[in-house]
Protein backbone atom coordinates (compact mmCIF):
# COMPACT_ATOMS: atom_id res chain seq x y z
CA UNK A 1 0.00 0.00 0.00
CA UNK A 2 2.87 2.33 0.82
CA UNK A 3 4.45 1.51 -2.54
CA UNK A 4 1.18 2.25 -4.30
CA UNK A 5 0.85 5.62 -2.57
CA UNK A 6 4.43 6.50 -3.47
CA UNK A 7 3.89 5.45 -7.08
CA UNK A 8 0.69 7.49 -7.27
CA UNK A 9 2.46 10.49 -5.68
CA UNK A 10 5.34 10.16 -8.10
CA UNK A 11 2.96 9.93 -11.05
CA UNK A 12 1.07 12.99 -9.78
CA UNK A 13 4.31 14.96 -9.37
CA UNK A 14 5.41 13.96 -12.89
CA UNK A 15 2.09 15.00 -14.38
CA UNK A 16 2.26 18.30 -12.49
CA UNK A 17 5.79 18.98 -13.66
CA UNK A 18 4.78 18.06 -17.23
CA UNK A 19 1.94 20.56 -16.95
CA UNK A 20 4.27 23.09 -15.44
CA UNK A 21 7.06 22.87 -17.97
CA UNK A 22 8.53 26.08 -19.24
CA UNK A 23 6.44 28.20 -21.55
CA UNK A 24 8.28 29.67 -24.56
CA UNK A 25 7.70 33.23 -23.24
CA UNK A 26 9.50 32.41 -19.98
CA UNK A 27 11.91 29.87 -21.39
CA UNK A 28 13.98 28.08 -18.75
CA UNK A 29 11.47 28.68 -15.93
CA UNK A 30 8.70 26.47 -14.57
CA UNK A 31 5.33 28.15 -15.17
CA UNK A 32 1.67 27.40 -14.66
CA UNK A 33 -1.02 27.48 -17.37
CA UNK A 34 -1.30 31.29 -17.12
CA UNK A 35 2.46 31.65 -17.75
CA UNK A 36 3.19 32.72 -14.16
CA UNK A 37 6.67 31.65 -13.05
CA UNK A 38 6.62 29.36 -10.00
CA UNK A 39 8.54 30.62 -7.02
CA UNK A 40 9.99 28.95 -3.95
CA UNK A 41 8.99 29.90 -0.44
CA UNK A 42 11.95 32.33 -0.51
CA UNK A 43 10.68 34.05 -3.67
CA UNK A 44 13.26 32.52 -6.01
CA UNK A 45 12.15 31.46 -9.48
CA UNK A 46 12.09 27.72 -10.28
CA UNK A 47 14.30 26.68 -13.16
CA UNK A 48 13.69 23.82 -15.55
CA UNK A 49 16.49 21.37 -16.24
CA UNK A 50 17.17 23.30 -19.43
CA UNK A 51 17.65 26.71 -17.80
CA UNK A 52 20.75 28.68 -18.82
CA UNK A 53 22.08 32.14 -18.05
CA UNK A 54 20.64 33.38 -21.36
CA UNK A 55 17.17 32.59 -19.99
CA UNK A 56 17.52 35.17 -17.19
CA UNK A 57 15.11 37.58 -18.87
CA UNK A 58 12.15 37.42 -16.49
CA UNK A 59 11.79 40.50 -14.32
CA UNK A 60 12.50 39.69 -10.67
CA UNK A 61 14.14 36.34 -11.44
CA UNK A 62 17.87 35.74 -11.02
CA UNK A 63 18.60 39.45 -10.48
CA UNK A 64 17.11 40.53 -13.81
CA UNK A 65 15.82 44.12 -13.79
CA UNK A 66 13.96 45.54 -16.74
CA UNK A 67 15.98 48.48 -18.01
CA UNK A 68 13.92 51.59 -18.45
CA UNK A 69 14.01 53.05 -21.92
CA UNK A 70 16.53 55.83 -22.21
CA UNK A 71 14.87 59.24 -22.20
CA UNK A 72 14.71 60.98 -25.53
CA UNK A 73 17.62 63.36 -25.97
CA UNK A 74 16.88 66.97 -25.23
CA UNK A 75 16.43 69.06 -28.36
CA UNK A 76 19.52 70.98 -29.37
CA UNK A 77 19.38 74.56 -28.18
CA UNK A 78 18.61 77.11 -30.84
CA UNK A 79 21.75 78.92 -31.94
CA UNK A 80 22.17 82.19 -30.13
CA UNK A 81 21.77 85.24 -32.33
CA UNK A 82 24.40 87.94 -32.12
CA UNK A 83 24.04 91.61 -32.89
CA UNK A 84 25.46 92.52 -36.28
CA UNK A 85 26.49 95.94 -37.56
CA UNK A 86 28.12 96.15 -41.00
CA UNK A 87 29.03 99.02 -43.31
CA UNK A 88 29.46 98.97 -47.07
CA UNK A 89 30.30 101.69 -49.58
CA UNK A 90 29.19 101.83 -53.21
CA UNK A 91 31.27 104.15 -55.39
CA UNK A 92 30.17 106.10 -58.48
CA UNK A 93 31.74 107.54 -61.58
CA UNK A 94 31.99 111.32 -61.89
CA UNK A 95 28.60 113.02 -62.34
CA UNK A 96 26.83 109.62 -62.35
CA UNK A 97 24.19 107.90 -60.27
CA UNK A 98 24.42 104.52 -62.07
CA UNK A 99 24.81 101.60 -59.63
CA UNK A 100 27.35 98.94 -60.61
CA UNK A 101 26.59 96.03 -58.22
CA UNK A 102 24.90 95.42 -54.88
CA UNK A 103 25.55 91.64 -54.77
CA UNK A 104 27.83 91.80 -51.68
CA UNK A 105 25.17 93.69 -49.74
CA UNK A 106 22.39 91.34 -50.88
CA UNK A 107 24.43 88.28 -49.83
CA UNK A 108 25.09 89.79 -46.40
CA UNK A 109 21.44 90.72 -45.82
CA UNK A 110 20.24 87.27 -46.96
CA UNK A 111 22.59 85.66 -44.42
CA UNK A 112 21.11 87.60 -41.49
CA UNK A 113 18.57 86.16 -39.05
CA UNK A 114 16.91 89.55 -38.60
CA UNK A 115 17.41 92.97 -40.17
CA UNK A 116 16.70 95.97 -37.95
CA UNK A 117 17.70 98.73 -40.35
CA UNK A 118 19.39 99.49 -43.66
CA UNK A 119 20.53 103.12 -43.88
CA UNK A 120 21.56 104.51 -47.26
CA UNK A 121 23.39 107.85 -47.24
CA UNK A 122 24.32 109.43 -50.56
CA UNK A 123 27.42 111.59 -50.99
CA UNK A 124 29.02 113.68 -53.72
CA UNK A 125 32.39 115.32 -54.32
CA UNK A 126 32.71 119.12 -54.16
CA UNK A 127 32.97 119.70 -57.94
CA UNK A 128 29.83 121.60 -59.04
CA UNK A 129 27.28 123.60 -57.07
CA UNK A 130 26.09 122.54 -53.62
CA UNK A 131 22.47 122.31 -54.82
CA UNK A 132 23.46 120.07 -57.74
CA UNK A 133 25.58 117.84 -55.48
CA UNK A 134 22.73 117.56 -52.95
CA UNK A 135 20.38 116.31 -55.67
CA UNK A 136 23.03 113.99 -57.16
CA UNK A 137 23.82 112.39 -53.78
CA UNK A 138 20.09 111.80 -53.18
CA UNK A 139 19.69 110.17 -56.62
CA UNK A 140 22.62 107.90 -55.84
CA UNK A 141 21.06 106.73 -52.55
CA UNK A 142 17.64 106.22 -54.18
CA UNK A 143 19.20 104.20 -57.01
CA UNK A 144 20.96 101.93 -54.50
CA UNK A 145 17.63 101.45 -52.67
CA UNK A 146 15.97 100.50 -55.97
CA UNK A 147 18.78 98.07 -56.84
CA UNK A 148 18.47 96.39 -53.42
CA UNK A 149 14.68 96.09 -53.74
CA UNK A 150 15.04 94.65 -57.24
CA UNK A 151 17.46 92.05 -55.81
CA UNK A 152 14.84 90.94 -53.26
CA UNK A 153 15.91 92.91 -50.18
CA UNK A 154 12.90 93.91 -48.04
CA UNK A 155 12.72 97.70 -47.90
CA UNK A 156 10.49 97.97 -44.81
CA UNK A 157 13.45 98.96 -42.62
CA UNK A 158 15.33 100.86 -45.33
CA UNK A 159 15.92 104.62 -45.08
CA UNK A 160 17.38 106.95 -47.71
CA UNK A 161 19.25 110.15 -46.89
CA UNK A 162 21.74 112.41 -48.65
CA UNK A 163 24.58 114.64 -47.44
CA UNK A 164 25.66 116.17 -50.75
CA UNK A 165 29.29 117.29 -50.51
CA UNK A 166 29.31 117.81 -46.70
CA UNK A 167 30.99 114.53 -45.67
CA UNK A 168 34.20 114.26 -47.73
CA UNK A 169 36.82 111.61 -46.95
CA UNK A 170 39.24 112.16 -49.86
CA UNK A 171 42.27 114.46 -49.40
CA UNK A 172 42.87 115.83 -52.89
CA UNK A 173 44.52 118.73 -54.67
CA UNK A 174 45.18 119.56 -58.30
CA UNK A 175 42.79 119.91 -61.21
CA UNK A 176 41.19 118.10 -64.11
CA UNK A 177 41.21 114.32 -64.52
CA UNK A 178 43.64 113.76 -61.64
CA UNK A 179 41.35 115.63 -59.22
CA UNK A 180 38.25 113.79 -60.48
CA UNK A 181 40.03 110.45 -60.03
CA UNK A 182 41.23 111.38 -56.53
CA UNK A 183 37.73 112.44 -55.42
CA UNK A 184 36.18 109.02 -56.23
CA UNK A 185 35.97 108.16 -52.51
CA UNK A 186 33.57 111.10 -52.03
CA UNK A 187 31.22 109.87 -54.78
CA UNK A 188 29.60 107.10 -52.78
CA UNK A 189 26.58 105.74 -50.95
CA UNK A 190 27.32 104.60 -47.42
CA UNK A 191 25.27 101.54 -46.47
CA UNK A 192 24.89 100.71 -42.79
CA UNK A 193 23.08 97.49 -41.85
CA UNK A 194 22.09 96.54 -38.30
CA UNK A 195 20.37 93.37 -37.16
CA UNK A 196 21.16 89.89 -35.86
CA UNK A 197 23.13 86.98 -37.27
TrEMBL record:
The record's Gene3D superfamilies line, in alphabetical order, gives:
OmpA-like domain
Q: Name one GO cellular component term.
A: cell outer membrane
Superkingdom field: Bacteria
Primary residence: membrane
What keywords appear on the UniProt entry? Cell outer membrane, Membrane, Signal
Domain spans labelled OmpA-like: 79-197
Asked if Cell membrane is a keyword of the record, the answer is no
Q: Which residues form the signal peptide?
A: 1-22
The keyword Membrane is annotated on this UniProt entry:
yes
- What compartments host this protein? Cell outer membrane
Q: What is this protein called?
A: OmpA-OmpF porin, OOP family
Amino acid sequence: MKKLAMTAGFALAMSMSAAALAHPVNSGYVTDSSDTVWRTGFGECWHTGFWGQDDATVEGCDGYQKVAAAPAPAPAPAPAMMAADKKFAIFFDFDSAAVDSVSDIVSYVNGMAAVNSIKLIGNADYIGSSAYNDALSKRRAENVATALRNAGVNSDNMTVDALGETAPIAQCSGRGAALISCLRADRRVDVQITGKK
